[in-house]
């Protein structure tokens, strides 16, 4: 069985855990290309054929894939557009390999795998209280927990272990 966790986006990661004991975290493969707007800009796009090859090399026809739901915020149009573009490419690769997929919000897997003390109650703009964590602290905690749970996985060069931890959450919740 293979359990795949995908931290969606062009700077995201892919975690893979197999029942055989193999565990790894990979960067999402991307291409830099010229933007299709009027101004001259470059953007990163998920390299769908390369992603498909990477996933097929580690997929053993059993298991599940959880994808972190992309951030959608009208106030952050460019980031939202990039996240949705990346999600579409990722879905095309997964569907082409017939890998069963589900979606997960970051807080769901973080609540299970990261220390509880990272979140604090804060008052939102509407006056309602909600839980919030410092993004830098979340990344550091993710990396540290990833290193503890998977000491054989090389996480050098990664800002966090989100893909791997999503895969671990997938393994815990979708094991047959």
Structure, briefly:
The protein is an alpha/beta fold and 176 residues long.
Number of strands: 9
Gross morphology: globular
* Uncertain residue ranges: none
Q: What Rg do the Cα atoms give?
A: 17 Å
CATH H-level superfamily: Ribonuclease H-like superfamily/Ribonuclease H
Helical residue percent band: 25-40%
- Helix/strand order, N-terminal first: EEEEEHEHEHEEHH
- Our measurement of the CA-to-CA distance between the termini, rounded to an integer number of angstroms, reads 9 Å
| Oligomeric state of shown chains | single chain
CATH class: Alpha Beta
Strand order of the largest sheet: 3-2-1-6-7
The count of helical stretches stands at 5
Q: What class, by secondary structure content?
A: alpha/beta
- Overall pLDDT confidence: 89
CATH architecture descriptor name = 2-Layer Sandwich
As for the CATH topology, it is Nucleotidyltransferase, domain 5
Strand content: 25-35%
The largest sheet is: 5 strands, mixed
Walk me through what this model shows.
The chain is an alpha/beta fold. The protein has one domain (2-174): Ribonuclease H-like superfamily/Ribonuclease H (Nucleotidyltransferase, domain 5). Helices cover 38% and strands 26% of the residues. It contains five helices and nine strands; from the N terminus they run E-E-E-E-E-H-E-H-E-H-E-E-H-H. It has helices at 48-58, 77-96, 106-113, 135-149, 162-174; strands spanning 2-6, 13-18, 23-27, 30-34, 42-46, 63-68, 101-104, 119-123, 129-133. The chain has a five-stranded mixed beta sheet with strand order 3-2-1-6-7. Helix 1 packs across helix 2. The radius of gyration is 17 Å and the shape is globular. 32% of the residues are buried.
